[in-house]
Write a structure and sequence with these properties.
- It contains 7 helices and no strands.
- The longest helix is centred in the N-terminal third of the chain and has 24 residues.
- It starts with 17 loop residues before the first helix and ends with a helix.
Amino acid sequence: EYRRITIPPFTVLDENNEDHREAFAYESIRRPPSALRLAALVVLYATLALMLTAYMQRLGQSRVRLLRTQSGIFAIVLLIMVIAKAILLFTGLPEYWVPASAAALWIALAFDRRTAILANLMVAFLVASLLRFDLFLLIVLLVRGMSVTLFLLNRKRPRFLVVNGALAGLATALAYLAI
């Protein structure tokens, strides 16, 4: 049950009070992360980046194996992360409005679908990590990115991108309702 809790200013919080416990929990979410949590995030981000790099080096197309291409893909991922953080910090929009599938669409248009799906996996985990690994958000982002990649029927005709976006939106809405 959702209810609004109002605690008067200058109140000394008591952990035994039910309303105050909820205020403690809310405040712990707003505090900066601990050094251990930051180290864990660095290890996770590095692992994801190394996995994507290893895929591109060993199994990617010849164009994807180039260093400048890999740098471009990581720049796209970083750009999406900056946009996601800006949306979460500076707007009142819900987290589902983060354009994480744009990275998968750009990569699928420029290279191939396999690389786009793996980049989408990385972007989805990174964006979910901004919200303490919200599983619901992670699943929605994965479905949206994979559907936008798989429904890309004709890369040469721009009008099919509208159909692609509509189909991906429908698949995401169905996944959202199913969850």
